[in-house]
Amino acid sequence: MKITKATFKSFLKKNEGKLFIKNRSDFDAMTDCVSYDDTARFIPVELTDKCPDHDLGIRGLWLVGQSRDYFTEYEDEQFKGIEVYNCCGTDIIAVLK
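^ that's the sequence the OP posted. Answer follows.
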């Protein structure tokens, strides 16, 4: 199944209050590239109203828009959700199984 931004937004709305985020990588302006965090772990989602067009109200998430965000299914032993990656980093938004 192809995951689109609309699919992702629907997943967020359907699972509101039960979401976790894992920031696997973020853009680092000091090195002008994406830095990976091998110790990243899932934490409960914190809501924000800082930049709703790009973070969809989730602290730590960043979407660049204009069809430059990519979405794939994610599943491990504990979590099931959607991985989002773009030029600014990689995040996983998931719920407990």
